[in-house]
Amino acid sequence: MKKLIFASVAWVVAAAFPVAQTPRTHDLKLLPENVHWGYYDPTVKPVLRIPSGDTIRVETMVARGLQRLRATGVREEEIPEALKVVENTVKERGPGAHPLTGPVWIEGAEPGDTLEVKIVGFEFLHPYGVSGFIPNNGTLPDDFPYAGFKLVRFNVRAGTAEFAPGVNLKLAPFFGSIGVAPNPLVGRISSGPPGPHAGNLDNKELVAGSTLYLPVHVAGALLSMGDGHAMQGDGEVTLTALETSLRGTVQVILRKGKRLNWPRAETPTHYIAMGLHTDLDEAARLATREMIDFLVTEKGMKRDDAYILCSLAADLHVTQLVDGTKGVHAMIAKTIFAR
Asked: How far apart are CA 19 and CA 30, in angstroms?
């Protein structure tokens, strides 16, 4: 009888206090059924469902697919088979250039919440990248009214790439596009311009060790990733970074009731606020307003003081100039705060 009573009590306690699930790691392979090409869409069916706290290893394909790889002289035997299968199988394509892996449904995510996407690390799916320009695009379309492409091979072990004899670049991989589904009233949108859903931010600060905060617009959030970059300069003036295919590892944490209007981020050393607008001046104003809001809500500052601090300690960078919607991101060092 004592054993029966003890077992009953133990069952009641276990039911009242359920054991938290151990976070898991999921592999999201580069397969045709895991890719939607050129758009974000609130009606796309999720290819994976995860609880908050889980980690995903996501494989992504180079922007524009194999067209640019072949144009720069990459040999067929150097192209991973997975890229060829996706290229030949995914026929439905939106107006954007980006094959996106996903979307991932985050259990419990609802409009008004925030996704915290911790970027853990990256691996290259092939040891080279491509860059260049095409007619009528980039920052100087009148100066370069023709196409030009360049193949750049990596020394993965050294973390470098030789752009030209005597010109060596340090690799700093990141996803150019990390985003959630837009509001259903907006419907399907191009993967090209970034927006409140984040998407094609092309923010070179989002390397391993950084965290991106995304406002949720639909149930499940529907998180997708793509547009692998081996490195990029602020501005991305030709329309291309050093484009490549990446396997990225991210941990996704749901922040219930934490409402954001625009994406934010942080690195180990800086807080980042973002402004996105077709007018560069307006993008700068929005980035400044977002940093002021961060300082008021997260650091408890008075609004006037926050504005003044932005002028003293925040640096505004041109994220990119070439995606229709331009980006400016404001960065402020964590070291100036006592907590």
From this structure: 33
For 268, the token pair is 């180990």
User: Is the per-residue pLDDT at 5 higher than 90?
Assistant: no
* Token digits of residue 187: 């419907």
Kindly state the helix (H) or strand (E) to which residue 121 belongs, with its residue range. Answer: strand 114-124
Q: Which domains does the chain have, with CATH numbers?
A: 21-261 (2.60.120.580), 269-339 (3.10.28.20)
Collapse the DSSP code of 118 into the 3-class scheme (helix H, G, I; strand E, B; otherwise coil) and give the result: strand
Measured CA to CA, the distance from residue 125 to residue 127 in angstroms comes to 7
Q: How far apart are CA 40 and CA 59, in angstroms?
A: 17
Rounded Cα distance, 101 and 37, in Å: 9
Q: Is the pLDDT of residue 155 over 80?
A: yes
**Positions of E strands within 180-338:** 189-190, 198-199, 211-215, 223-229, 246-255, 264-266, 270-277, 314-320, 326-333
Sign (positive/negative) of CA torsion 175, 46, 218, 254? negative
Task: Judge if pTM exceeds 0.70.
Answer: yes
CA distances from 117 to 206, 228, 248, 280 (A): 10, 16, 12, 27
Phi, psi of 311 (to 5 degrees): -70, -30
> Mean pLDDT throughout 97-116?
98
Q: Rounded distance, CA 25 to CA 14, Å?
A: 26
What does the angle CA 198 – CA 202 – CA 207 come to, to the nearest 5 degrees? 100
**Using an 8 Å Cβ cutoff, are 290 and 319 in contact?**
no
Q: What is the pLDDT of residues 266-301, one digit of tens each?
A: 999 999 999 999 999 999 999 999 999 999 999 999
Average pLDDT along the chain: 94
